[in-house]
Amino acid sequence: MHCDSHSACVRLVGLLLALVYSPAIVAADDATPTAGLSTTRPADGPAVEVDGGFMVPYTETIPGTNVTFEMVPIPGGEFLLGSPADEPERSEDEGPQVQVRVEPMWVGRCEVTWAEYKAYMATYRAFKSFEQIVNAAATRGGETNAATATVAAHVVPDEASDAQLVDAVTCPTPLYDSSYTYSAGEEPNQPAVTMTPFAARQYAKWLSGITGHEYRLPTEAEW
Fold first, then answer.
1. 3-state secondary structure of 81
2. pTM passes above 0.70
3. CA distance 74 to 27
């Protein structure tokens, strides 16, 4: 991933969220403050020294909502991943052992909450509204207005190539059985659970798009 000298290259690691630090994260002459970065070590709280400054905690607000989540810096390091071949009851997929280096990153202080994930779930209504506008124009024989034209300009054509589709973000459909999804409760501050790994990755992709920070799920080594 390319980073220019005036921006932070950040990625998500999460349903526990985490941002991964990338080299040249901040320019020494950059006058624009960057979330999570400080040119001086704070008097208290966690801080990770990197080229050009210190990674520090920061709070992100999901655009269009009052929902926030906090990210904290984690130092990088090296460790031996996997289990030794002579470990009792060892599984084959636990080896071979490899030396792994993990770069500094920001990690969500808490798991993704229902308040955060439901902001993503709400996109279904928006996508359905777009579909209704486009379908309404089709039934009127192509008649358009400003709203229809705006939506139509962003609709992916049926004959779209794989290259056009690769960065698409899907949204979750309405729940089939909410009693299962919310079996442990659905209070806003409770951890979001029961989504598939694909849905979790799509949430991270959606969050990246609306915040401008490239969030992702953590790797096995980062966990």
1. strand
2. yes
3. 21
What is residue 180's three-state secondary structure? helix
Of 20, 72, 25, nearest in space to 45 by CA:
72
Secondary structure of residue 19 in the 3-state scheme: strand
Is the CB of residue 99 less than 8 Å from the CB of residue 80?
yes
Q: What is the pLDDT of residues 164-189, one digit of tens each?
A: 555 667 777 777 777 767 777 788 88
Three-state secondary-structure class, residue 149: helix
Structure tokens at 183: 């079996």
Degrees to nearest 5, angle at CA 76 with 75 and 78:
140
> Are the C-beta atoms of 52 and 89 separated by less than 8 Å?
no
Task: Tell me whether residue 169 is exposed, middle or buried, using C-beta atoms within 10 angstroms of its C-beta: 0 to 12, 13 to 18, 19 or more.
Answer: middle
CB 81, CB 32: distance < 8 Å: no
For residue range 34-43, what is the model confidence (pLDDT) as tens digits? 778 888 999 9
3-state secondary structure 21-79: CCCCCCCCCCCCCCCCEECCCCCCCCCEEECCEEECCEEEECCCCCCEEEEEEECCEEE
8 A C-beta contact, residue 88 and residue 95? no
Where on the phi/psi map is residue 45: left (φ > 0), alpha (ψ -120 to 50), or beta? left
Quote the CA–CA distance of 136 and 37 in Å, as a whole number.
48
